[in-house]
Amino acid sequence: MDSQDIHRSLYSPTLLTDVNRLFEEQIRDWETVARRFRELEQVKSRTVAYPHCTLLLTHNPCRIDSSTAKVDSLSIQERPCFLCPSNRSAEQQSISWNNYNILINPFPIFRRHFTIVDKHHQAQRLSPERIGDMLVLARNLPEYTIFYNGPGCGASAPDHFHFQAGNRGYMPIEKETKSGMEVICESSQLKISCQSDELRKAVIAESDSLPLLVQAIASICQLVGEVVPRQPEPMFNLLTLFAENRWKTYLFPRRTHRPSQFFETGEKRIVFSPGAVDFGGVVILPVEKDFNRLDGGTLRDLFAQLTFQEDEFSTLKKLIKNFRLC
Questions:
Q1: For the chain, which residues make up each domain, given as ranges?
Q2: Per-residue pLDDT tens digits for 248-289
Q3: What is the enclosing helix (H) or strand (E) of 59?
Q4: Prediction pTM value
Q5: What's the distance, CA 205 to chain centroid?
Q6: Domain 3-323: which topology?
Q7: What are the strands, taking DSSP E only, across 60-179?
Q8: N-terminal to C-terminal alpha carbon distance within the chain
Q9: Read out DSSP for 191-217?
Q10: Rounded-to-integer distance, Cα 220 and Cα 305, Å
């Protein structure tokens, strides 16, 4: 059985119902997490608008551990893996799907938030097989956006492979217009565009063909690493959703993990450690003073340190064109 047949066999018409049932059961039976989801209703938020994009700033104190997580090799070796079954809370239940367990996320950003965890302790690396899993999962869960944070740009558990899922329509980028989008290549089954706005750079791939899209995303990830080499894998965040019988995927190439202000002390410090959700337009700020004081100019500076620079993005676009993915 080839990889396309394997992924076709993973389509499940009941998974969405099962996942939503898991959420309701966990909210009913796990009071600590139920309280955190209730508190999301009270999370402070405000909008910062730019001509071509919008940010939703949120003050979410329960995300402080994730935002400040130490992800260097020594720190990871010295702490137990919180995604492994033996270290999870006794109340945490799961649904088995393929090689993964689907869990409610106990530190939520979304009103419905899940972590999709490999059943084995394996490092956070996005192989073509994993990309296929991610796309099939998006098709199985059309009410959710599936996202991936690379081991060096947002994953607080880079030692244990996982995706995440949050309810569709929450991230501003899902609703933004196509202003400033440049079509790099297009065929009857695959379209690849690049978009640059006031904050970030993105490569957007759309297709109704699973194998074509898997190949395209894997190739783009590789090309990101040719522009800004990083180990153990190129730096990027990935969002994907399935709507109208077609996948849409946003890939955000990254230069670095955290801005310089994260490492300051005292009043100069800003606890901003962005992943896919932040690049999707929901800025997670666990410290209230940061939520209150960040303005449009400072946010532009923060993102400018993290996203590709103009010359790097131009190089990436040329590489994609020359690679002839469509």
A1: 3-323
A2: 999 999 999 999 999 999 999 999 999 999 999 999 999 999
A3: strand 54-59
A4: 0.94
A5: 15
A6: HIT family, subunit A (3.30.428)
A7: 94-97, 100-104, 113-118, 144-149, 162-167
A8: 26
A9: EEEEEE-SS-EEEEEEES-HHHHHHHH
A10: 21
